[in-house]
Amino acid sequence: MRILFVSAVDFPDNLDRGARYHVHYWLKALSSEHDVDFLLVESYSHRRVDVPQLTSAKVINLSEPPRTALHSRVMRVARSVISGIPRSAQKAMPQAAVEYVRQAVKDRRYDLAILWEGSAAGYSTILQGAVPIILSRLSVDAVDAHDQRKRHGMWHPRWAINEWVIRRYEGRTCRAATAISTVNEEDAQDLVRRYQLKNIVRAIPIGVELRQFAPRENDAYTKVVCFMGNLDWEANIDALDWLVGEVTPQVMAVDPQARFRVIGPGGSVLREKLSGPVVEFTGYVPSVREATADVAVAVVPVFSGTGMRLKLLEFLSMGIPTVTTSLGAAGLPCVDGKHVLIADGTESFAAAVNKLLSDPTLRAKLSKNGPELARQYPWDGIVTKVRELVSDTLIAFAEK
């Protein structure tokens, strides 16, 4: 069988973060038994020609650098409103790639299409009816768009229109797909309810690279508290603003020796705004394990966005005691007080951080139980689930 895999994000050439592992293991599941053409449409100026770890997957690079001139950005906004395709998806549909997919449909070149994330979902309307389609949804974009609207102004025309476009686009592309894969059951149920879906909607959880994030040998008897994530993602921006602006002062009031470390790429504005004697920004680090070796407590203070938190799984796998919000633990069967501490308010979150900083016995308990939970989510474990979804998708398409 020949499979078309379309992606505009997270090319798996360097397995240095969970999102790239996610793509890698999907490709591994598919390319071990089938011929896979990886259609790369990311908006980068450099060109990639192969997947080093998966030589059986052929890369077709039809990406284009983004056009950043003012008139180009204005035209994308106008096209977004008229066509109902969000700007991020427009950038993932360069003309050469669109023509390639159209010709592939005409030639009946593929037996299955995998569309990775909402940015690639626009190809579903071209492929619909010609081949079975699996749409991988890493989050519910309508929820993220609504959070963005609340963040910037509920009655602001720009964000109201943006949410309307994204909601319509997500509904249309989800209905066009034969099957949809989410990363947790909550998102699967939300999509079904939100868009009255009748197609296959199945949760295939993300995983963790257990060897890369092996448990630490010893507790870190320090006062270092760690936040980790991409600092250009707005849910992480919200989380860090809240952590530093509201939680940190309450932690410091109890324990003045506490120090906060922020690990992750992006966030130049945040770095200028929040860094100081108490808050250190490391930027991108080649080894998360080394960068967290002296971390006493990890935090996942997420209260917006959907999907499953890769960083929480990585903290659990390394045995780093963690405080998380309820939303930060969504999709994982974490038990409060056993695997993590769960707290949603400013005072309760700060109190949980202070409790872990001062209680080595509790830290030891979480450090032992966290890796046991993480071992239930190895990346290799999704391979069988992906193959099962492919088989069921082919059957469902044939029965239509």
In brief, what are we looking at here?
By secondary structure, the protein is α/β, with parallel strands linked by helices. The protein has 16 helices and 13 strands. The strands form two sheets. The chain has a seven-stranded parallel beta sheet, sandwiched between helices. A six-stranded parallel beta sheet has the order 10-9-8-11-12-13, with helices on both faces.
Question: Would you kindly provide a written description of the structure presented here, covering whatever features stand out?
Answer:
The chain has 400 residues and is an alpha/beta fold. It has two domains: 2-207 and 379-399, Glycogen Phosphorylase B (Rossmann fold); 224-374, Glycogen Phosphorylase B (Rossmann fold, 3-Layer(aba) Sandwich), CATH 3.40.50. The chain is built from 16 helices and 13 strands. It has helices at residues 18-31, 70-83, 87-91, 95-107, 117-120, 124-127, 141-152, 157-176, 185-195, 234-254, 268-274, 288-291, 310-318, 346-358, 360-374, 382-399; strands spanning 2-7, 35-40, 57-61, 112-116, 133-136, 179-182, 200-203, 224-228, 259-263, 279-283, 297-300, 322-324, 341-342. α13 (310-318) links the parallel β11 and β12. α7 (141-152) packs antiparallel against α8 and α13 (310-318) packs across α15. 45% of the residues are buried. The mean pLDDT is 88.
